[in-house]
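Thread: "does anyone have the structure for this chain?"

Original post by V.I.:
We have the sequence but no experimental structure in hand. Need at least a predicted one for the grant figures.
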Amino acid sequence: MTRRPPHVSCVARTAVIYVTCALSGLLALATPLAGQTLNPNVIEFLPPQLAAAVNRYDIAFYQASAADPFLVVNIGKPSPQADGMIRADLTAKITNWPAPNALCIARVAAVSATGTTQSIASNMFVYQCDFSLSSANQSFPAAGGTGKVAVTTQTWCGWRATSAVSWITITSGTNGVGSGTITYETAPNTTTTSRRGALTIAGLTYTVTQAAAPNVPPTVRIVRPSNGETLSARSVRIDAESSDSDGTVTSVAFYANGVRIGASTEAQPSVRWSPDAPGPYTLTASATDNAGATTWSAPVSVTIR
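Reply from O.Q.:
Generated one for you, tokens below.
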């Protein structure tokens, strides 16, 4: 006996009623209608003659004119209704809906132990979707935090949310159908530069900005000569140590009794100082980092003979 392929049609969603869309098939049940269907949520098809041998039915969704499906959904094996047609509610079967606003067709495959029989193409249809976000952007302090943004759309419209940067993590709402909420976290910004990232939600851009971390001033201390030391040399070497926890030290300046006597940009800063006259001196150093912050060392008292 020749096996007949399933005849496929769909039911279009309208504001008030469902309108059946007649489709062409090898066994036409009605005169096919031209045009496309908007927002179908029920698929309707005539099972093959040897339906008892069918294990399940798969619905394959295609972009119009594409050779390969982009989504295949197992709908199980629903029983025919009184008119002999099988109807499946897609809202109960699909969690990852076809791309919105794209012209599509569908085919039903009857899968049995001996093989698969595929229907001809359904009518063309489009899941017509309008997406909007509750806000377009959000700002955070350097410490980071948690944010939310709501996406609003029709109940049949599927969407995804992705982060373009590693410091924004989506914690819930990576995808959904109909309106929903996306929750995300921003990691602390430990740099002294503000930053900007984005979420892409249903094709829309949601911008996240984060403030720079407060600059931590550098540290500096004089390590040579020692505090209280008496020196007889007419050329004194002064050494310092400096560091910056969130950047770099760009320069270290040295002072004797408040008068600048030299500066260094080396990793181990030092200067040579020739005192004007014998007597007591107070030596200090100041370190400046790449963000412009300056720190002074503790004073070191020396005596020049």
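V.I.: this helps a lot. Confidence is low (pLDDT under 50) at residues 12-34.
O.Q.: and The longest strand covers residues 279-289.
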